[in-house]
Amino acid sequence: MTPRDYLQLALFLGILALASPPLGRYIHRVLEGGRTWLHPLLGPVERLIYAAAGVDPTRDHTWQRYAACVLGFTLAGFCLTFGVLMFQDVLPLNPQGFPAPSWDLALNTAVSFVTNTNWQAYGGEATMSHLSQMVALTYQNFVSAAVGIAVCMAVVRGVARAEAQGLGNFWTDLVRANLYVLLPLCVVGALALVSQGMVQTFAASFTALTPEGATQTIAVGPVASQVIIKMLGTNGGGFFNANGAHPFENPTAVSNFIQMLAIFLLPSALVFTLGTAVRRPRHAWTVWGVMAGVFLAGALLIAHFEYRGTPAMAQAVAAGSPATSVAAPGVTSPPAPASMPASTPSSVPNMEGKEVRFGIFSSALFATITTDASCGAVNAMHDSLTPIGGLVALVNMQLGEIIFGGVGSGLYGMVLFIILTVFLAGLMVGRTPDYLGKRIEGREVTWSVAALLLPAMPLLGFTALSAVGWGPEALANAGAHGFSELLYAYTSASQNNGSAFGGLTVNSPAFNLTTAAAMLIGRFGVMLPMLVVAGSLAARRPRPITDASFPVEGGTFALLLTSVIIIVGALTYLPALSLGPIVEHLQMLEGLLF
Fold first, then answer.
1. DSSP assignment of 499-519, as one string?
2. Parallel/antiparallel/unpaired status of strands 438-439 and 434-435
3. What are phi and psi of 218, to 5 degrees?
4. Once rounded to an integer, what is the mean pLDDT over residues 407-435?
5. Which end of the chain, C or N, has fewer beta carbons within 10 A?
6. Over the stretch 37-60, which tens digit does the pLDDT of each residue have?
């Protein structure tokens, strides 16, 4: 890594650390009904929405009613999105004249966007009309992110409240998250991206003349408005098929930095929303430090192995020609690294699949950020990462995407791990576990474990079934790398990430239906159990926090929390990882390529 790389990393974390606490306090104030400088402008709009929808903003919802509202709103959003996609060929704002997608692709896309996953089994600029992009997809980018923020706030209230039955009002949380948080940030962010050359137009395309004298049709559209919310809402769905690698979707190094910062901004700020609600800023900084520490480890690890490249690359550079194929189908095998001449360079940076204008470190940093959060946007081809680079991206998602995680889902996922850490630590020291004065009992632990296991079931189950069923014919690579492509697809779906490894043809009924099921289980298999936990904690009477209470701040707790996160992830997913990127790395050292 170069000094410029370290400077970019320090600048990124520095801005994030400075911006997150005030934004977190602002979010808490907004969602708890406090007044802000935006209320004179947006307050009448908020009241009009409540009046039109027949919502009583003063009504407090129990966890059961809160969960019912979440499910009902999601179902209505699915019907809207599915309907728009199925009838896009007869709806307006379709200047390209695109036909409607197949029913299974429309279903998969609708599920993807209402679950904040934004898994895309299609090329955006060649499949979706402007109306579909704006009304069906960009709209869901806003509201699915707002649902995550709302549920996160309900869990925060569960921790903060005492002897209470309610967790807040879902409808007010949803409206306020959109009006006072997402929309203002998107207006500022979209203008910043347009200033960097990002496209924002209702035109369908324009024709350019190439240096050879031929004509080329270049797709355009309302790009900036979708890109900023896909990042701020940790959605990730690209307007173009190349996503953040497309020059119209990510034109400069500055736009790349803005997008990376936008992905982490709200998940990072919500940690301090928790700290504000429980009046424990040190606890918030401890949790934030754990997230930042695991993030740093992942970013540095990917960057190290991408700079190092592979032995085959070093030999190809020394020989002045690419590696040659051997007889085994799907496998290339250059001579073993040990036979390379003394003049062969020890390492050649892996630039395959990366944009030259971003380089290795910005690509590695982007890959780490997008898989730590449930975003899924990419500025490089993850299929071209080294095996360990791909391993880190997979592990980032499989840990539950809590570093810093999705908007809202990252924090309530981290609360899950905090509860497990407090429970396990209490068992080790023989002390009744409690979290900020709330006793942790069997109900909380049971539902927390359920929230851990439910996303793992479709991830591992569908990966295994596809490996012996519908998967092999869709693969572009053989062996361990091909298995990694399948594992990555179902990891991305079940953890609501949405990024694609590449090299896998997923637009088929089998993939569309199974990834849709994985997305639904991954979203609500964590969200609903955490609402149960929040309702249980809210009703509990807190005990005074004394020197005998288990501390949830400081270095010791940070180390315990990090250990639990890593150990739980390792126990759950290490066997599958061993069949994919781990064995691929070992074979790479022997000169085998897939």
1. ---SSB---SHHHHHHHHHHH
2. antiparallel
3. -115, 120
4. 87
5. N
6. 999 999 999 999 999 999 999 999
